[in-house]
Amino acid sequence: SALPEKKMIFKGLTVNKEDINKLMLTPQIHYPLPGGSALVTFEDVKVAQRIIEAREHTVELSFWEELEEHDRCRMRVQAVPVEILVPSALEVRLTRSSRSILVSDLPSLGISNEALLDKLELFFSKKKNGGSEVESSEFLDDSGQVLLTFAQDGVIEPLIEKRHIQILIGKGKYEVKISPCMSGDITNLQLQPSCCPRTVLILGIPDVLSEESMRDALEIHFQRASNGGGEVDAVAYVPAGRTALAVFVEDTG
After folding, report:
1. What residue ranges do the domains of the chain occupy?
2. Class of CATH domain 91-187
3. Are 150 and 99 in contact (CB under 8 A)?
4. Whole-number percent of the chain with pLDDT over 70
5. How many other C-beta atoms lie within 10 A of the C-beta of residue 149?
6. Which end of the chain is more exposed for a tag (fewer CB within 10 A), N or C?
7. Does the pLDDT at position 18 exceed 70?
């Protein structure tokens, strides 16, 4: 009540209170594919459902209209849903490292990652810069940050408190951001079964064509409306005698 009135304009970004500590996950499901199988992804969910409901499909392997009926080659395959397990609940225990920091907002110097790591190690190993002996350094490609680990405890706290620090590289000064390094351990993970709505698993494919020709044959068959199909987004085929690993991500379309 003793403070004078002052008009203020808030120009920040508002968020919901319940979203402040929310952990956002982007699932990546690894799905093993046996030999003699294929994944066909359609644009329309209804098309995929029709293909699964039909179950048995006869795929034409000869594409020339002038062939006689007895010269045509066909194969019978089965269409089944792609059933995967997706996370329904996740608990993570976060632990703050006592010797490691994350260095971000790194300058673009036109040098290799290894050279940049050497320069950062040299800078942060000096006591006059608030550092100490650097035990290891690692460039994190997925985030563009550098993970620095010191050989002794008690070094990172003053650096983290500064949040930003000017580093000297060559003849230039650059400001970088210092953040604590957090590691997470999964303490509870619950999974629930789910079916991919637009992708169908095709089984029982014989090894009678080259990989490219078989992929073309499957795409031609399943995109024809007369076969109950529709527009195909992608086809992944695994020949007999081989295996593959498909990666499923969240369908944002």
Report:
1. 28-88+189-249, 91-187
2. alpha beta
3. yes
4. 85
5. 16
6. N
7. no
Residue type, 181: C
- Which amino acid belongs to residue 226? S
Q: Which residues contact 222 (CB under 8 A, 6 or more apart)?
A: 40, 42, 51, 57, 229, 232, 235
Alpha helices, DSSP H, located in the chain: 45-54, 113-124, 156-162, 211-222
* Angle CA 51–56–58, to nearest 5: 95
**What span, in angstroms and rounded, lies between the C-alpha atoms of 79 and 40?**
10
Written as one string, the DSSP assignment of 55-112 is -EEEEE----TTS-GGG--EEEEEEEEEEEEEEEEEEEEEEEEEEEEEEES----S--
Whole-prediction pTM: 0.59
The one-character DSSP state at 24 is P
Give 69 or 217, the one with higher predicted confidence: 217
Q: Can you give the pLDDT at residue 250? A: 77
Read off the pLDDT band of 8 (50, 70, 90): low
User: How many angstroms separate the CA atoms of 61 and 207, rounded?
Assistant: 12
> Residue 57 and residue 229: Cα distance in Å, rounded?
11
